[in-house]
Amino acid sequence: MFRQLAFFALAVLPSSFAQISDNFESGWDQTKWPIYAPDCNQGGSVSLDSTTAHSGKNSIKVSGAGGYCGHIFFGSTKVPTGDVYVRTYLKAQNALNANHVSFITMTDNGLGTNKHLRIGGQSNILMYNRESDDATLPDLSPQGIATSEALPTGAWECFEYHLGKDGTIETWLNNETIPGLTVKTGVSNPNDQQWVRANYKPAVSAIYFGWESYGGDVNTFWYDDVAISSTRVGC
Predict the structure, then answer these.
(1) HSE (CB half, 13 Å, CA atoms) of 11?
(2) β partners of residue 126
(3) Residue 6, H or E segment
(4) Cα–Cα distances in Å, from 43 out to 51, 67, 182?
(5) Burial per residue of 165-191, b for 16 or more beta-carbon CB atoms within 10 angstroms, e otherwise
(6) DSSP structure string for 130-192
(7) Residue of 76, 75, 111, 29 whose CA lies nearest to 212
(8) What 8-state DSSP symbol labels residue 32?
(9) What is the pLDDT along the chain (235 residues), one digit of tens a residue?
(10) Which residues of 23-54 are buried (b: 16+ CB within 10 A; e: fewer)?
């Protein structure tokens, strides 16, 4: 009941907040959530799946193929112009391994034409990556790796993040802050040195959920109860 009320509250907020949310119980509206596969699309697929869901009966299934052109996403350009908060429940079939992959990608014109802010994995942990200079958050040193988390497989996980115009980044997994995925005034993160050297301030214009690998890795992700808002939605 609480989850239903939360989604109703999001639905009736003024459109100026530019938030969008969906539990996909009415199906997959491809106008609301179009497919995104820049440059090429070879083998990946997005579909409505009624065999598993975080709530209700439906979720969105992304079957990602190997290599960059095996990438595919779905998402929205309805992104707030100020603070951006994203919440999704997700389920991964395979664990993140040593190779670089992304399961969320965001267009950010501040990084250059067709460049993206990406969230995914490398060194077996969750991490951010800037396509423009390949910087990672956290630093992928042994110390930096220890400050992030692995993404569990085979179960629904609540993943949230916040991007601030002042450069703030906050990240939560199942309501727990991930220290290594934090950049915030007054909060110490000794493993963000590669990230902060560019004085980066996120300015994302679209957010997409899916799969992209930069080697041969394949994976299947499911997404449900997705929300993009100007304030934190929570789990």
Answers:
(1) 9
(2) 121
(3) helix 2-11
(4) 22, 10, 34
(5) eebbbbbbbeeeebbbbbbeeeeebeb
(6) ETTT--EES-SSHHHHTTS-PPP-SS-EEEEEEE-TTS-EEEEETTEE-GGG-BBTTB--TT-
(7) 75
(8) T
(9) 444 444 444 443 433 344 899 999 999 999 999 999 998 989 999 999 999 999 999 999 999 999 899 999 999 999 998 999 999 999 999 999 999 999 999 999 889 888 999 999 999 999 999 999 999 999 999 999 999 999 999 999 999 999 999 999 999 999 999 999 999 999 999 999 999 999 999 999 999 999 999 989 999 999 999 999 999 999 9
(10) bbeeebeeeebebbbeeeeeebebeebeeebb
Q: Six-digit token pair at 188? A: 């110490």
Q: How many residues does the chain have?
A: 235
List the structure tokens of 30.
Answer: 């491809």
Exposure of 110 in the CB half-sphere (CA atoms within 13 A): 14
Amino acid letter for position 58: N
- Neighbouring residues of 102: CB distance < 8 A, sequence distance ≥ 6: 71, 118, 119, 120, 129, 211, 212, 213
Query: What whole-number distance in Å separates Cα of residue 110 and Cα of residue 24?
Result: 32
- Integer Cα distance of 178 and 30 in angstroms: 32
Q: Is 7 helix (H, G, I), strand (E, B) or coil?
A: helix
Q: Are 223 and 62 in contact (CB under 8 A)?
A: yes
* Cβ atoms of residues 82 and 230 within 8 Å: yes
pTM value? 0.92
d(CA 219, CA 94): 6
